[in-house]
Amino acid sequence: MIWKICFAMAILFVLAGTVVYIICRKQGASRIQYLGAGVFLASVTMCFPVMYMQENAGIALAMCISHSIRMFVVDTGADDILSMLTRDILDSMLLPYKILAVTLYLLAPVFTLGVVLQYFSNTFERLRLRLKKKHDLYIFSELNARSLEIAFDMWSCAKKSGRRLEIVFCCSDKKDSVNTDQEKSARKLNAVLLPEEIIHVRLNSQSRRVNYYIISEDDDANVDQTLKMIHDMTGGSAWYTKQRLCQKNVTLHCYATNAEAESLLDAKDKQDLRVVLVDEVRDAVYEQLYEYPLYTNQMQTGGAKQKILTLLILGGGKAGCEFLKAAVWSGRMISYKLNIHLFDLEGTQLKDRLEAECPELLPDEGNYQICIHEGDIFGSTMQRELDALGQVDYCVSALGDDETSIRAAVWMRRHFCAKAGYTKPFICAYVQSSAKKMAVSELSENTRRKTSLSYDIVPFGCGGAYYGNESDAAFVLEYLGLGVQSHYFRLNRESDAESRRYAVQNFYEKQGNRRSSIANGMHISTKLWEMGYGILRVPENGEELECYRRCVKPVDFAEILASLSETERAAYYNLEHERWMAYVRTEGWRLSSSGGRTLAEIRACYELYCEEFKNQNYLAKMHPALVPIESDDPSVATLQQVDDMIVQVNREKGLGEYYPDYVQSDVELVDHIGEIVSGVWCGSEGMQIAGTLAKEGTCVICSLEDIRRYNYNERKEKRV
């Protein structure tokens, strides 16, 4: 009877230790001692009946403990116990007992090895990394709150979509209490923690994708590390020449916002590396304007008289200015004229700074108007100035501090709720804290009908969603940007792999190329909205795909375009050029001119640099195409006149034949919106975007009614 009891108890001890170890591991703590304790107690219990045959209970227990210790230090062999086990004593229990004994003899030294390896944890972590040879890796340069947030978002998205990824944190050997807590959080992701800097983590990327995130709190250090990594991954470096590194499978994300970062990264030859300069504030603004465009609360006018769309921005800091710049080009529409009002305590200084950074942004150059007001957001005059604005359609609170931005957003909601005779505007707030963003989205008041009335304030900010693709916006923006790039490189279904490689290489070669193409792709949604259509990313599987098939009927853009009159198509061609001009002005470009806007003045300026640059002057940020397609003013040159002038100057100076084709370029982009959205440029093998394989049919164009029906039914099914 004692043999059966001890056998059962040994099994229970091992199981108990294993369960406790697994629970602790999931909570971010590696408590291998619990597993070892279970094995030790099982060993003592397993030995007890053997020793009890020769000694009394007390002596037998002491001998069991001594023998178990010897098992852990490999000072005894299984024969010491197995030789004393006979069928006469155990009968049918002989084989199970022998298996248990052998198993414990093997587990005991393994546990000892594990404890020893804990003292050499760096070696153990590197061993874990070696074992992940075929897994896609996401490597962060530092273990900090920001990198953890992004990593958790990536992990949850990958788990939701059924993908497997592995996360690595570098410089994780700090021993302060904050870092200890962060290590516990990282363990929940089963992350590998390495002590060395990211520039020393040289991994094989021939058969997997490796994404590096250089994300310390020091922008200069991030840029410096990125430049070193580019150097080590290109040219004649051993890492590259020994065929351990496949450049097209590597992406470097450099987190920096200073202007010099872009110039320094652009100066390096990246070959096939994908290098992305991450400006978290600007990226968050782009995502917000894609998900909630300026026309969120508007209706198509159907060709009626142009209406006014008023945007109110509170705060002229980084987020407020980025929103203003993005709104200028993303809000270019046929049906609406955009009026932007920005309020800031230092409005005069802000205006001077914007005029210096973007010389042609503030003057009323097109279908928009910008007014910068100076004053206290919470002052007594604010309400009077808001009343003077009349109808406000879209509000942004971006005052730098989370609490202040939330306070201003709530104040605006209350102000407009008390204002009779006007449509309530869309309100959003720039909030960096994930916890506060969740709380803001849940802000509400109880009504007399026992229901909750929401404040309808949409929080946005750099909270990880953009990089983890929890929102479709991150993926679709990159997808559309690559689609625009592929259009300019004339990619189609039949294009070969080398043509696609070259287009992708050019997209990531200069940060301005990527950003410009993404802005162009973003505005496709605006053009389609004015036509009564939108873009929808097709779900990959599950209930969402079934809902999509029931609710959505994709349309052919060629048929949409054919249904428009010649005048209507011309309006969209002109809109694309107006959008482009608005965008390059927000990037600090100005007209290539010696003073005015006549063709002669533009020619005089162009002739000064045409031997160095065939089109725009990159050093001076001057572009000759910043003129309208049509103009009734003889003192203002038209786009076709400038195009013809450039062709003529190049011929006269013997610089060869050069045809800018400005007008045709705008026409072709609008005409090929269908191909850009459908993804025919991905080819048969598809194209990797942020760890997701994009292919033809990834996105579709469909009616706004279908999109509303799909979104409604999808939310309804999720609630069920």
Automatic annotation (TrEMBL):
Superkingdom field: Bacteria
Keywords: Membrane, Transmembrane, Transmembrane helix
Entry's transmembrane regions: 6-23, 35-53, 59-78, 99-120
The keyword Membrane appears for this protein: yes
Stated name of the protein: Uncharacterized protein
Organism whose genome encodes this protein: Dorea ammoniilytica
